[in-house]
């Protein structure tokens, strides 16, 4: 190229005509992608350059190494629970993330798999001999049964959407719990459940250790993710997403909407039932309370956290949520790390500039010491309870939070006031929000140290809600989910 004197050389690229049938804006999305600076950006480009299958293989290898890093059975049990939740979130992603069906009866398929395996692999039927089928026989039977059950549940709901579908499926989930509690107690065990269930066995081997179940679940999770990826990239996967976006438009494009919905219910039911079989075998017993609504909320939370519609997101959400709740809420100290850590990380992510964050934290500390000194001067018993946390956290907040000798009543009142403050924070903006944040943070610490840390079951639900609120505000599509663009 010839350059005239006094002019700088400009690289000229041949202009390409727009391709027919191709959205140029979408086609060039990778050119508009922003990456983090430095090594973070390099790592991000490297990870995105890998194909889907190498990513799955890499994650499987790292997962397979975990049992070699610990000999603690409790830590392995946390890992098993995390893999189970990831597998359940993966199954729920079919109906909720891909097909857009709000299935609130999903937990019943999990229970169906667990109870079916318990009946086929225990002495509950025809005692004392029982059936005691090997896993390679019972698992296909349970999978087929779960697929049929998914079709049965989907039949009356194939014409329903939104709230109506949610109500119908919720009734199915609650009906399952009532059925196992009250119907055929001699067979299903009633509230006492079914005990002495066989481990997973077949071909002369059986799983008897947590390591064995961890690896078995890991293999099952990887195989399920692989199959679902093939489905996601097939015509079935595209049909599910089309039905999710607009069932009427999908029907106009000759997609069999009702059949596609039934397939989503059926495939999700199979994944949940397989998870239930492993749960029953590893726990050696099943009870109706294992499949109640609180656990369904946990599965939905895992899917929302990771990102609905994403296979990797569903797995990551299940792993993270289970490890956080099971691994960090077993002792007051670890629970404190999680509670104060979530608050601090949220403030760091959401508050700008940094001087405002420093000012809020400093004001909260000063506010706490002033309130503690005033309350202690008025009544010694009002601060006689002390924090419920242990370790250095208790030492740090001992002369800061207000915990009476009988903290239950004061803690409940404080919790209600805390909810009001949180609602007020959402409504106001600007300096008023910044000022109101100081007493809100302090009251949250007082309620935590007085009541919540001593009640793990309640704290789990509150932390789940807090994590979801933070995630939906900071990243509505979840950790690995994709943003959905509305075209008007």
Task: Outline the structure in words.
It is built from 20 helices and 2 strands. A two-stranded antiparallel ribbon has the order 1-2. The protein has helices at 24-27, 38-49, 52-65, 73-98, 106-120, 135-157, 162-182, 185-188, 210-232, 235-245, 247-252, 257-283, 293-306, 311-328, 332-350, 354-378, 392-397, 407-427, 430-450, 456-474; strands at 201-202, 205-206. Residues 1-14 have low confidence and may be disordered.
The SSE order reads HHHHHHHHEEHHHHHHHHHHHH
Strand order in the largest sheet: 1-2
Largest sheet: 2 strands, antiparallel
Outline, from the CA principal axes?
globular
Low-confidence stretches: 1-14
CA-to-CA gap between the ends?
45 Å
Rounded Rg: 27 Å
Q: Label the structural class.
A: mainly alpha
Would you kindly provide a brief summary of this structure?
The protein contains 20 helices and two strands. The chain is mainly α and 488 residues long.
Give the key terms:
mainly alpha; two-stranded antiparallel ribbon; globular; disordered N terminus
